[in-house]
TrEMBL record:
The keyword Amino-acid biosynthesis does not apply. Keywords: Cell membrane, Membrane, Transmembrane, Transmembrane helix. The chain crosses the membrane at residues 7-25, 37-61, 73-97, 117-135, 147-169, 189-211, 223-247, 267-292. This is Lysylphosphatidylglycerol synthetase. It is found in: Cell membrane. Its main location: membrane. GO terms for cellular component: plasma membrane. It comes from Candidatus Blackburnbacteria bacterium RIFCSPLOWO2_01_FULL_40_20. InterPro entries: L-PG_synthase/AglD. It is a multi-pass membrane protein. It holds the Pfam family LPG_synthase_TM.
Length: 300
């Protein structure tokens, strides 16, 4: 039943966004006619760079010296395509399997995946803080609650994963569900990886800003707000159990958060276009990896 929900709900949400877009297609068609498509190509380039950056993050979480970035990059790219298959976490399984073939212990790969999730949530939470002052204008958040969010997120940012997981295991209800891992990560490396992940979410915000800039004269200051709003919607999608890879849920959440800037039809269109850009960037990187691997095999 859960597998069917993971298939049905993303399709239902994406269909709703498409329907909402088509409902006001005449106004959107006018924007398409006058769009500056150079910004769309630039956005795609930024998303490709973000894909490479995400692959590098995972590489840095693997045991040092076991594998080169050149070897880990195809593993990350190929396994990533399993994110949107409902019912199973195929991309993690594929990553463990492919890395094991390169001689990396299964426990080490599993730990790298856990830490990748940890840093992704941390980086997105940090960048989402950029939108707090903006969100407070439209949602009934008190300043006190905003301060609590900032203090908690920044505290986690400056604590090592070892300490955070140790504290989390002492929490009622969820503590006993957190697996025990031996994490050997120098504090300086932790800070670098946390900053790096936050930078990747800023890149995603920049990519969306370029998409919006293709249709409207949006001030550059909105880049940070867009990055914060996207990061918040990414967290919602990631933590939703019936949305593989956040598909659908992230897009709908992002569209709603964009309402102060756009009508819901325009926000739905931009959110879908951003999702399409993600898929296109993954496809481009996958194609480049496939071509490179094909040339390497021909040489041997």
């Amino acid at each position: 039943m859960k597998s069917y929900l993971k298939l049905f709900i993303p399709i239902l949400i994406l269909s709703f966004l498409v329907w909402t877009t088509l409902r006001s297609w005449s106004s959107i068609e006018g924007k398409l006619a006058s769009a500056n498509y150079l910004y769309l190509f630039l956005s795609l380039g930024v998303l490709v760079v973000a894909q490479v950056g995400a692959a590098y993050l995972w590489y840095r979480l693997l045991p040092k010296g076991k594998i080169s970035f050149r070897q880990s990059f195809p593993i990350f790219v190929i396994s990533n395509f399993g994110r949107f298959i409902p019912g199973i976490v195929l991309h993690y399984v594929a990553r463990v399997y492919l890395a094991k073939k390169k001689g990396i212990d299964v426990k080490d790969v599993a730990l790298s995946v856990v830490l990748e999730v940890y840093y992704s949530l941390l980086g997105s939470a940090v960048v989402s803080l950029l939108a707090i002052s903006y969100v407070n204008k439209y949602l009934p958040f008190s300043q006190f609650i905003s301060i609590i969010f900032i203090v908690v997120i920044l505290s986690v940012f400056f604590l090592s994963p070892v300490k955070v997981l140790s504290i989390a295991r002492k929490m009622p209800f969820v503590g006993n569900k957190i697996p025990t891992f031996e994490v050997h990560l120098p504090y300086k490396i932790h800070i670098v990886l946390a900053i790096w992940t936050a930078f990747l979410f800023l890149l995603n915000g920049a990519a969306f800003y370029l998409i919006s800039r293709a249709f409207d004269n949006i001030p550059i200051s909105n880049l940070y707000v867009f990055a914060g709003l996207f990061s918040a919607s990414w967290i919602v999608g990631f933590l939703t159990p019936v949305a593989p890879g956040g598909l659908g849920v992230t897009d709908l959440s992002f569209a709603y958060l964009l309402l102060p800037f756009y009508s819901f039809s325009e926000a739905s269109f931009l959110s879908l276009l951003f999702r399409f850009g993600f898929i296109m960037s993954e496809g481009i990187v996958f194609l480049l990896v496939s071509l490179f691997n094909g040339r390497e095999k021909m040489k041997t």
